[in-house]
Amino acid sequence: MREITRHTPGKLFIVVLVSSLVFAVAILPFLFEPGTLFFGWITVPVLSGAVIMLVWLVALAIYVKSYWPYR
């Protein structure tokens, strides 16, 4: 963790992860009704979990591929 917070890309990586988590937990549930379905079967909790996983996967792939301090 210390290695990530010591350089700018690592700090940006942490900000992206925390902001996606805050968006999915604190904001997304208030944007839709509890019974809202997407594509006829995806509920809001499932969609928010999928969004978090996709954002984290992309952020981790970019960080590890381009900015990992131990190559």
Account of the 3D structure:
The protein is mostly helical and 71 residues long. Helix content is 73%, strand content 6%. The protein is built from three helices and two strands; from the N terminus they run ααββα. The protein has helices at residues 2-5, 8-31, 44-67; strands at residues 37-38, 42-43. A two-stranded antiparallel sheet has the order 1-2. Strand 1 (37-38) and strand 2 (42-43) form a beta hairpin. The model has no long low-confidence stretch (mean pLDDT 83).
What number is the mean pLDDT? 83
- The tally of strands reads 2
Total helical segments:
3
- Structural class by secondary-structure content: mainly alpha
How large a portion of the residues is in β-strands, by DSSP E? Answer: 5-15%
Helix content: over 70%
Order of strands, main sheet, comes to 1-2
How would you describe the shape? Answer: elongated
Low-confidence stretches: none
How are the elements arranged and paired?
Elements: H1 2-5, H2 8-31, E1 37-38, E2 42-43, H3 44-67
Antiparallel strand pairs: 1-2
Helix pairs in contact: 2-3
